[in-house]
Each structure stands twice: as structure tokens, then as C-alpha cells.
Amino acid sequence: MKFDVKNIIILVLLAASILFGLNWYFSGNDKSKDRVKQLEKELVELDKAKKESDKKLKASEEKSANLEKISKKSQEEAAKQAQLTKQAEAVVLKYKTELDKAKANTNVVKETIKKMEDKPANRTEQALIESLKNKTK
Asked: Across all residues in the chain, what is the average pLDDT?
């Protein structure tokens, strides 16, 4: 390789640009260093906030799962109660119809008794004797 003026100038410029580039890269300015420190602090704070949020999220998920279990149990219990209520209503309806029949029968008997009290049966002597005979047998 031949060292002429052109090659030497290129080498000197290359070396100077490398030196200035390295100096700029390693020295930096104070504003960028301060900004990097500030960003690192923010990163640490964000990591802490993320960990806290993750804990809260996990706790909320556990509470949600527990509430879902409780809700499911409550729904099952409500279904059982609804079924028991239907059965009880059926029994009540049955007894109500029986009660209505009994009331109707009682009313018929009361009317019959009232009629007999108002107009007793006129029996002849022979009919009364026969009636007494039938009752004593």
C-alpha cells in the first residue's frame, strides 16, 4: 500500500471520526443521563405498582370464584325451596277441597236438622212403636 497524501488524510479523518464518535458515545450529556435515571426510577415504581395490581387482581379473582360458588349454592337452594313450595301448595289445595266438601256436607246436615226442628215428622202410634223397636235391636 502506498502512502500518499490522499490516503493519509482519509486515515486521519477516519481516526478522528472514530475518536469523536467514541467520545460522544461514552460521555453523553448530563440531560440524557438524568433522563435515563428518571426513567429507571419510573420503571421501578411501575414494577411495584404492577406487583400490587397483580396481587389485587388475584385476590379479586379468588373472591369472584368464592362468590360464584355461593351463588350456585344459593340457586340450588332456591330451586329446592321452590319445589318444596309447589309440593306444599298441592297439599294445601287438596286439603282446601276436602274442607270445602266438609263445609258443604255440614251445611246440608244443618239444613236437614233445621227442617226437622221446624217440621217434626208426624208419626202415628204404630210408626213410633216400630221406630223404637228398630232402635233397641
From this structure: 89
